[in-house]
Specification:
387 residues; alpha/beta; Aspartate Aminotransferase, domain 2; Aspartate Aminotransferase, domain 1; 2 domains; five-stranded mixed sheet; EC 4.4.1.2
Length: 387
């Protein structure tokens, strides 16, 4: 079963769909049963049976089945947000007194959540590579969390090497795969235990939903679904699940277009005198390009550049002069977006992630690449000395 079939047709020809070209949206908050015994059996297996919206729902279940199949995982659980998925996943794997290793730069709110867990006796340490991991690992370390490509810097790690290292030390691995989507990278096939995604980005694809998912083995997903998912209450709505299903239908086509446009824009910026560095794993000049081409089948269009400036004011001027790139915090939709961490991220977080003042994140959308390149060129020229 290939990815395009999974995205477009998996589960959509079953009897419950009744031949509808768009799978039904089940809006009911609860399901009833013919007998008390049937209700009791369903409640005992609420992670797989339809009892109450907070547990699962046929529309949400279809989205979960598709996402699990795409990642080559046994099961998936959808949440009301990406952070809902991340916080529930981490919580399911640690207890008071445990320690978490974080490899490389990760999504800012993930770090904030790990700091929040300190009040419950869960500590964490950020490390830059596995050599630092060897020094930082402790007897109470339980979890290794990472992204590849990494947050903002888009550094690439050898996933098989990382998971092998973690397995030898008895650690569970969790990886955020939002950047690549399952179309371009499948971490579970390289030894990762659990994969998380923000569904708000490429998978949704239209900037009209907030959602998250965790994918992995039934052994790890079932207790999470019965405990953290139920207790935290970050349930995905059936309407958002329907948007996920629609987004998946065009995901392979959209990712191919994002890749083409992203690489064209990145190549232009890589040759511009006003840009010190372009952090795009799809460029041959990227330090992790060889590893990326080995473990990924393509590249998304989210990357960062470092402007040749140390001035926050000049960074802000660059953003303000753009006309087609909109200024915003998210990514993965049709529209091209730009953001600068130095203008919004607290200094301590930026220092932890090693983000320079001149770093600007670009999300290349589906507008014509020539239009976006012209927009960036004019903005750079408008900054005077960066031209």
């Amino acid at each position: 079963m290939d990815d395009e079939w999974i995205c477009g047709r998996l589960g959509e020809d079953e009897p419950w769909v009744l031949g509808a070209v768009n799978p039904p949206v089940f809006e009911n908050s609860l399901f009833t049963f013919a007998t008390a015994q049937a209700l009791g059996e369903a409640i005992r297996n609420e992670d797989e049976r339809y009892v109450y919206w907070r547990g699962t729902n046929p529309t949400v279940d279809l989205a979960q089945r598709k996402l699990a199949a795409l990642e080559r995982g046994e099961r998936a659980k959808c949440f009301g947000s990406g952070m809902g998925a991340i916080s529930a996943t981490i919580s399911s794997l640690v207890s008071a007194g445990d320690h978490v290793l974080v490899l490389g730069a990760v999504y800012g709110p993930t770090t904030q959540f790990l700091r929040y867990l300190e009040k419950f006796g869960v500590t964490h340490t950020h490390v830059g590579d596995l050599a630092e991991g060897d020094s930082a690992i402790r007897a109470d370390t339980r979890l290794l969390y990472f992204e590849s490509p990494s947050y903002m810097a888009y550094a690439v790690v050898d996933i098989a090497e990382v998971t092998g290292w973690a397995r030898e030390r008895g650690l569970v691995t969790v990886m955020d795969n939002t950047w690549s989507t399952p179309i371009f990278q499948k971490p579970l096939t390289m030894g990762v235990d659990l994969v998380v995604h923000s569904l708000s980005k490429y998978i949704g694809g239209h900037s009209d939903l907030v959602g998250g998912v965790v994918v992995g083995s039934s052994r790890l997903i079932r207790p999470l679904a019965l405990t953290e998912y139920q207790l935290y209450g970050a349930a995905m709505s059936p309407h958002d699940a329907a948007k996920v299903i629609k987004g998946l239908r065009t995901l392979p086509v959209r990712m191919a277009a994002h890749q083409e446009r992203g690489l064209a824009v990145a190549a232009f910026l890589a040759g511009h005198p006003g840009v010190r560095a372009v952090n795009h794993p799809g460029l041959a000049s990227h330090p992790g390009h060889a590893i990326a081409t080995r473990q990924m089948s393509g590249f998304s269009s989210l990357f960062s550049i470092e402007l040749a400036t140390e001035s926050r004011e000049e960074v802000a001027t660059f953003l303000d002069k753009l006309r087609y790139f909109r200024i915003g915090v998210s990514w993965g939709g049709f529209e091209s977006l730009v953001n600068a961490p130095a203008l919004s991220t607290e200094e301590s977080v930026r220092a932890t992630m090693g983000i320079p003042v001149g770093l600007v994140r670009l999300s290349v959308g589906l507008e014509p690449a020539d239009t976006l390149i012209k927009d960036l060129g004019l903005a750079l020229e408008g900054m005077g000395r960066l031209a």
